[in-house]
Amino acid sequence: MLANLLPNVQWETMWAATVETLYMTGVAVAATFVLGIILGLLLFLTSKGNLWENRAANAVIAAFVNIFRSIPFIILIILLIPFTKWLVGTMLGANAALPALVIGAAPFYARMVEIALREIDKGVIEAAQAMGASTWTIIWKVLLPESLPALVSGITVTAVSLVSYTAMAGVIGAGGLGNLAYLEGFQRNHNDVTFVATVLVLIIVFVIQFIGDFVTSKIDKR
Amino acid sequence: MIALEQVTKIYQAANGSVTAVDNVSLEIREGEIFGIIGYSGAGKSTLIRLLNGLEKPTSGRVIVAGRDMARVKGRELRKARQEIGMIFQHFNLLWSRTVRENIAFPLEIAGVPKEERNKRVDELIELVGLSGREDAYPSQLSGGQKQRVGIARALANNPKVLLCDEATSALDPQTTDAILDLLVDINKRLGLTIVLITHEMHVIRKICDRVAVMESGKIVEQGEVLHVFRHPKQPITRRFVKQLIEPEETEEAISHLFGQYPNGVIAQLTFVGAAAGQPLIAQVVRQFDVDVNILQGKISQTHQGAYGVLFVHMNGAPDEIGRALDFIQSQQVAVEVIHDAR
Known about the structure:
The structure holds two protein chains of two kinds. By secondary structure, chain A is an all-alpha fold. Chain A has ten helices and no strands. The longest helix of chain A has 40 residues, at 135-174. The N and C termini of chain A lie far apart (51 Å). Chain B has two domains: 2-244, 3-Layer(aba) Sandwich (Rossmann fold); 257-341, Alpha-Beta Plaits, CATH 3.30.70.260. Chain B is built from twelve helices and 14 strands. Chain B has helices at 44-50, 74-82, 99-109, 114-127, 143-155, 173-190, 201-207, 225-230, 235-245, 250-260, 280-287, 318-330, and strands at residues 2-13, 16-28, 33-37, 59-64, 67-68, 84-88, 161-165, 193-198, 210-215, 218-224, 264-272, 290-302, 305-316, 334-341. In chain B, the strands form three sheets. Chain B has a six-stranded mixed beta sheet, sandwiched between helices. A four-stranded antiparallel beta sheet of chain B has the order 2-1-4-5, covered by helices on one side. In chain B, helix 3 crosses helix 4, helix 3 packs parallel to helix 5 and helix 4 crosses helix 5. The longest helix of chain B is centred in the middle third of the chain and has 18 residues, at 173-190. The mean pLDDT of chain B is 89.
């Protein structure tokens, strides 16, 4: 039945592509989470009226974030080819997509982290200072816990973008569902392959969104 | 305990500089409750933040418990801050932590071991009357309960000084009184020095030993609360005192009465301390040939004794009225004739 409706779909290849997409997304989300939080914290702390207020440092970080956030992802991949070759040793395969994915998504997430941190009541930070907390204590025990729901919903949105980035990266040889849909589906005119790959991407996105919403509502005690 | 010596704080703003605190010198004794009153923008928020180094003075010295808060930095400053508790108008609790975890926070900062921390938190919850609410999150508490958590948190590290930044301004009158009672109780029980800033004379009246009045960055008047109530020198102080003893409508109500009493005098009698307890009016009526009619009166309890104002109408022979007024004055009661139709 299924074989009649979808004559060109090879389920083993499809499954392998799904695993590749999940692998790329998973690693990229983890790296983006860490790097984005570090960048976001730096953006927040160096901004006016905050703990490490420093105009020059803030301008440099903001410029870096804005530049990498503005470059269209497909162009970013091409620009990063020499860097990726140096780092990973190849331009093909899932690992080769990771540098571009992280560098494309982390600045985007960093801005969300900055916004989340700015939402924290200044009075709470002041109270922690008045108790004699060091900057590290304030970061670990005030800034991150108090902004956690926003950090989680931010990484959810970023993860969804990352899924579509992996599809784009697939087109230029990184593997995954995007690669399959392009090579098998589009170039060989097998629409059923494109269709199944699309459905699988949608399922991945829905699951990510569901997990993100669930975690956010669980940790938000406001 | 606390000494400010010629402290000035100037903020550099885009359009010139703002002097928030202007050459203030102040001494606060150990174990007293010291109030600083002023309207918003008077500089009192800056002043109280100088006491724990959240603000650094442009010039002058800020000595708290033997340390110059204007000079200490880094680890030394953080150590000093652990000995100074602070509570806030908007409580500033961490919403991500329960009552228990919020109170434990300053103990975590001070590096108190877990077991000791739990014991101390239990004591504090008991002290501020929050037993049963330990595991609630701030969003599940009322304003008064949140401020109780704030107080427990401020007391966690056994501070020598407690700073209160408009601590009751966001609370309703009943809750305000309960929180003020708690502060007095803590002050008595722990011998803690309390410095509070407020714009409500009610707070000063209820719990303070001494008061300083602040206007445009300067302390314009200070002294014992009762003394300042009795002899307010500056116009701003008079306005604050008036806010308390005379409801807004009093003046209007009294002037309406002028028409109703074509004869005699209308006088305002101000009682302080022991004088407020005497049967003065009875004595006047007995000793002099005058009629006394009480138009309006109010007695307020302060931390140091009663303070009251009475508006009376007196009728009789002009000389007799004069003698009666002299007698009242001789009883340590201030007399001000507001309307004279003798």
